[in-house]
Amino acid sequence: KVPSQLVPWDFYINLQLQERLNEECDNLCSCYQYQDGCIVWHQYINCFTLQDLLQHSEFITHEITVLVIYNLLTVVEKLHKAEIVHGDLSPRSLILRNRIHDPYDFNKNNQALKIVDFSYSVDLRAQLDVFTLSGFRTVQILEGQKILANCSSPYQVDLFGIADLAHLLLFKEHLQVFWDGSLWKLSQSVSELKDGELWNKFFVRILNASDESTVSVLRELAAEMNEVFDTTFQSHLNKALWKVGTLISPGALLFQQDRQSALSQIPA
Question: Any signal peptide, and if so, which residues (predicted)?
Answer without folding.
Answer: none
